[in-house]
């Protein structure tokens, strides 16, 4: 409600666009803080990645359900209208977030964020090319090549002499996170076109928390209830998930789809910067170049989608996070 209030306070189109840019940019920055939160919580509590993922989804689900209580019938109706697709979206959210958190713990925040964020749009673009049997455009081919080179560079950095086995496993988990995200999106996105984004977010977080609970419980959910870790877990759910999505979707009402590029770049840049400054995470030259190629591939795909004269079909991005002209942003 307070977001809508501030939005209505600016009557001019220019002011509205500036506010929307700030809202979407803030969402990207908030998403970028999640990886560092995972590392800090794990160090302070001893919780494993899946347990932290459960607490984040559970906190987000509680916040979203409380805020969406007046619209509970509409939320339930959305689930009944497409139970399989909604369940796939929720389980997919739990799976790719869980793998992302595993990647953060094993390989570091920077690699986990850049790889998982960068690979999903490229895979979705490739899938759309195969599904429609259309010859890929120059931008798609260039993006695919750049993404492959970027992954090779990052992979090479994790396999250098002295690099730990955990770093290689973290890279695989990050790739798995991107693959699961792309797969769940490809399966459910056409079915979910009519569902309101925040309604889908509420359902996805709730189903995701339920689906990841058994694995998280097997890892262990108990920890010493100190103020710091509890505050960070609440922050992860309420701020980096619930508030970030609210800002994102509110901002998308008044901006062009090209702003999705800003969101895509702000998240990994924020994650890498915080990882270096706050937890002294090393960032080698090969990793930086590889990450830059991956992010450049994503940006090229977004910009190419904007230049396309046809927008009747959704672009090669998750339909649950669509911009006004049919594109979307990938995020955690």
Automatic annotation (TrEMBL):
Where does the record place the region Disordered?
309-332
Q: Name one GO cellular component term.
A: membrane
- In this chain the EamA domain maps to 21-154, 169-302
Assign the protein's first listed, main location to one coarse class.
membrane
Q: Which keywords label this protein?
A: Membrane, Transmembrane, Transmembrane helix
Similarity comment: family membership: Belongs to the EamA transporter family.
Q: What is this protein called?
A: DME family drug/metabolite transporter
Species name: Actinoplanes italicus
